[in-house]
Amino acid sequence: MQFKLLVVSVIFYLGISLRAEAQNPKIKYLSVSVMTESISFPFTRLSPLHPGVELGVTFHEWNRVHSSSKLNTYLGWFYHQEVDQGFYLRGEYEYAFRIKNTVSIGLPIGLGYLHTFHTGPVYEQREDGSFTAITQTGRPHAILNLGLGVTYLRLGNFQPFIRYEMMVQSPFVATVPVVSRSFLKVGINKKF
Question: Which residues, listed in sequence order, are joined to residue 164 by a DSSP beta bridge?
Fold first, then answer.
């Protein structure tokens, strides 16, 4: 049942993205970032490092005199050695203030889907009390992200950025319905 929900959600989300792309076929930005993940409240810790990567596409951008708005789509992965690893797909709205067309301060908010896998083997208890290793299919989660980022705008079509985000994930485990994850991301946007 969870796998069917995943498939339907991904198809629905991709359908909306492709429809938007068909109406305005120009990609505005591509982004690549490396990151570290932590299960913590925002701004409480940055170590130990749990690596990850994220690829992003901006399909729509609205520019004003001192600000801009973007609609972004991201595909990402992170590895938390002691807990899990996760793959996510999310959409995001980002509002950014520009300071003298040199730096922008972005405030992103988004929704998405996260699928996590335990990093170690998973066991199931048999009726006789013994345990056997099983193939894990992972766990689905809904996610909400909020962030704060700074982007440098003066390198032509390349825009380096640093972003700190909080992701709220639900459900986490049966006894903990919601958990907060923090991400520190460093990357670059390629403008088209």
Answer: 148, 184
